Every structure is written in C-alpha cells, then in structure tokens.
Amino acid sequence: MQIVEVSDFGVRSAVLRLTRAGTPLRFEFYPMVHVGEPAFYAAVTERLRRCDLVVAEGVGRGGSWAAGALSLSYQLPARFRRSGLVEQDIPLDSLGVPVRYPDLTGEQFSAGWQAVPWWQRAVATVGAPLVGLERLAFGSRRAMAAAMEVSDTDWREELARAESMDELLSLIGEQRDRLLVSELDDIHTHRAHERITVGIVYGAKHVPPAVHGLRALHRYAPRGAEWLTVINY
User: What Cα–Cα distance (Å) separates residue 39 from each residue in 90, 126, 130?
Assistant: First the structure.
C-alpha cells in the first residue's frame, strides 16, 4: 500500500479511510510531509473541518529548542517559499473540531534528546541548518521530493503477528508511534459505537505502523483512498 507516491509527475499523498464490520466509527489518515504546495494543506484543512475528532502530531508542543533546530532542514527553504513550496501550515486550533495531541511534549523530547550521544547531537544540530541552506540555494521541486516516498511494506507482516496491545507495542519500537497507536486504541475502546470520523494528521512515516496497529488490534482495514497532490513538477 502506497502512502506517499513520488512519480515523474509529482508527489501525491493517499488519504486512507479505515472501517471495520459492525462498527460505525471511521478513521481517516492524512499522511503529511513537511513541505508542499499551499493547495495541499488547504485541501487537508477543508477535510479535517468535516471530521468529528482530530488526532494530530505535535512533537515538542510546549517548547523544545532541539526540535526547532532539527526542523531547520525544511523550514529554511519553506519560509523563503523556495520553488513556491511552503511549510506545513494547518490551523489545528481553529478547525472547530476537538484535537488530541498524543505526542511527545517539549520536556519529553528534550529528555530523550539528552540521552542521545553528544557527538550525534552535534552532527544533527549543525547538519540540519546546513541542509536547509543547501535546499534554499539549490533545491528544486524534484530535489525536495526525492526522499518523500513512503509505503507500508516493512510493517505488513511484522505487525500482523501481534495478538495483544502489549505485543503490538513491543513490535513498534518508535516511542511516538506507540503513543499514537495507544491513542487510537483508546478512541476505539470508548467511541466505537458512535458514527463519527476521526482524522489522523501525522507525518507519513508514522502512518504504516498506526494503520497496521488498528488492523492487528481491532480488524480495521482500508476501505477507500483519495489521492491529494502535494507537489506538481
């Protein structure tokens, strides 16, 4: 299953709709990329306003200088609208829809950052702005899109073996993915009987473990998809 597709024509992101038999609750995944055309983020915003609940990525909410420094690799070209592209800009707090942020807080991110070896922290904090400057000076749309493609190939068989929440989370090693899957499990537990749509707005690489986590735990499966254009060449 393709999550974000990079082709000769541009970049597309798949809006995935997950349902299961006998349950009116529906999950809609919006795989995000950090930089894209303004029309892409506007299209996602319009669809989120029609949801009943939004679950959103928000690492570092509350403040984290480390998270800010690492984001400079894409923020610099986006802020100067290199090639007409902009940084992800979805007004989550003004959608008129309740939003949950099951992500690392600024304090949690900073604590985890301090556990990383000092030399790796140094390389990352120096390298991120340099990459941003290089993209600002020389990055074309094709160059910016080169590493955006995401599929679910690596997750399909591994997560299908999980038989419980504990087993599933032990397979999902990334802490932020674990937090997301736990939140979606909680929503299903308490609201599966409601006819609502839950929009999940997360970075594309977090989508495969969450999709297959819902399948392994509660047998939700993709029943439809819609392509949204992220970048046109």
Answer: 11, 32, 28
